[in-house]
Amino acid sequence: MLINRLVVIGVGLIGGSVARDARKFGLVKEIIGCGRGEANLQKAVELGVVDSYTTDVADAVKDADMVLMAAPMGAFESLFRAMKPALSPNTIITDAGSVKGCVVDDAIKVFGEVPANLVPAHPIAGTEKSGVEASFEGLYRDRRVLLTPTEQTDPQATAKVRALWTGIGARVDEIGVEHHDKVLAATSHLPHLLAYGLVDTLARMDDSREIFSYAAGGFRDFTRIAASDPQMWHDINFTNRKAILEVLDLYRADLDQLRHWISTDDSESLMTCFKNAKSARDHFSSIFHAGKPGDGDE
């Protein structure tokens, strides 16, 4: 038994799927759910995802061996403040958020330093669905999980978090906090921002019903992620603001360049761009094909 008492704050797709697999593989003795939505928590008990629940964060973390924060990124500072008085010195705190710099920053605001038992983590897996009923066993099988321990992080705490993820079938790597946020801004956060923006633009057009009724498979594939939880992605865009703005500015400049080529009939430049993009996509196709539909939505 790896963990006697696991507390999952935010029992939705991500947190609920961790809980399901931790129980399935015998990694945990007791799972406590915590969150603001009591109906969702009651459903989590009914489904056997958690053993019991509370809406009180301090009550939840008492005597916990590990706390997994799977709530929206904007809630982390308040969650840290709520749990601080009740935390045992040996309790390991980890998370499943898509931005890591804000986790470290929020911890410093509340604790005055990065706690030795804080192990920031990011499972690169998910779907556009949310809530405990969207959770399922096997979400993390062969999926990559990035740990971003700091210089202050206790190696034993990192090892225990690594063991949890590998125990449910994930592939675990370690990466620096700042580098993580830059990479994910480009590969995950920007695509979600673009999908939300495109769907919103088209939905506000006078002939939006006709536009969506004639949408082909490419449009559905590209915009599927716009069905993701708005609150989660709202928080991600503000907590990773600097890195997202940098890559957004770069992409906006490239869009202007594409517009210029089309407006000036620069066929050669446009074709070169398309060929380069296809070559790059083909080169990395083996990485993409190693995943499954929905992989990396977070």
UniProtKB/TrEMBL annotation:
It catalyses: prephenate + NAD(+) = 3-(4-hydroxyphenyl)pyruvate + CO2 + NADH. One of its GO terms (molecular function) is prephenate dehydrogenase (NADP+) activity. Pathway: Amino-acid biosynthesis; L-tyrosine biosynthesis; (4-hydroxyphenyl)pyruvate from prephenate (NAD(+) route): step 1/1. GO terms for biological process: tyrosine biosynthetic process. Coiled coil: none annotated. Pfam families: PDH_C, PDH_N. It comes from the Bacteria. Keywords: Amino-acid biosynthesis, Aromatic amino acid biosynthesis, NAD, Oxidoreductase, Tyrosine biosynthesis. Its EC number is 1.3.1.12. Residues 4-292 form the Prephenate/arogenate dehydrogenase domain. PANTHER family: PREPHENATE DEHYDROGENASE (PTHR21363), PREPHENATE DEHYDROGENASE [NADP(+)] (PTHR21363:SF0). Belongs to the prephenate/arogenate dehydrogenase family. This is prephenate dehydrogenase.
